[in-house]
Amino acid sequence: SGNTNGKAFAEQLTEEGVDLGWETRLVPFGKEIGATVYSAGFAIRVALTFGGVKPGDYRRVLLYNKNRIFAFVLALGEVTDEKYANAAGAINFGFPTIADTDIPSILPRGVCTYEHVVPSIKREEIVSKGIEVRGLKLTITEVPVPIPYGPAFEGERVRKEDMHAEFGGTKSKCLEFLYTKDLAEVEDGKIELIGSDVDTIEPGTAIPLAIIVEVAGRDMQPDFEPILERQIHHFTKPELYTEYLQPWHQ
């Protein structure tokens, strides 16, 4: 709902060729900011229908939406008094506001799970920031790698004459190291290659390999580091054309 300089969310998506509707979960409620009330009304109806909440029980409506409806507000462009009021209403449902402008922040926990208002977020990062602040847990259904990936390839054997690169074992050194950093220091999905890529080396070469992983999370603890580090083995086994032994072959 709402618009900035006369242009609304639905109009921007339509110009970019994005389909709107329930199938894509992109449903415009109105061009005016007051239409935000329909989104809030939808959240209330979910609490009444599926949560057994009685009409007028605002406390249970808040708790149900805070714990079960993982919504958040993206405040794009100038925030007027009317937009402030609508965002405040969303906060009363446990839905935080993420803005791309320099508006006053409300960081302490309370009504929302984490922060209430987070300002000055870059537009290319605003969705991921909203996911973080709201506490969503996402499941990746398709691993973005250039080779087939799945349980069917676990335990695959690579013949010596087909082997392109070998890491670890008696011929080279190989290690995995995972450590925790602050949330602000970690860029989600960033991959940095230092050294030669496998397609630039001679087939059958044994070279050193170090996998360094930086992780961050609101509930991350040092005790989790060795557990996550061991998962690196689990994540590499389903790759086609890769045999995980000790050493690694590819």
UniProtKB/TrEMBL annotation:
GO biological process, one term: acetyl-CoA metabolic process
EC number per UniProt: 2.3.1.169
TM regions (residue ranges): none
GO molecular function, one term: metal ion binding
Signal peptide residues on this chain, from the entry's feature table: none
Principal EC category: transferase
A Pfam family recorded for this sequence: CdhC
UniProt-listed InterPro entries: CO_DH/Ac-CoA_synth_bsu, CO_DH/Ac-CoA_synth_bsu_3_sf, Prismane-like_a/b-sand, Prismane-like_sf
UniProt xrefs under PANTHER family: ACETYL-COA DECARBONYLASE_SYNTHASE COMPLEX SUBUNIT BETA 1, PTHR42281
Protein name: CO-methylating acetyl-CoA synthase
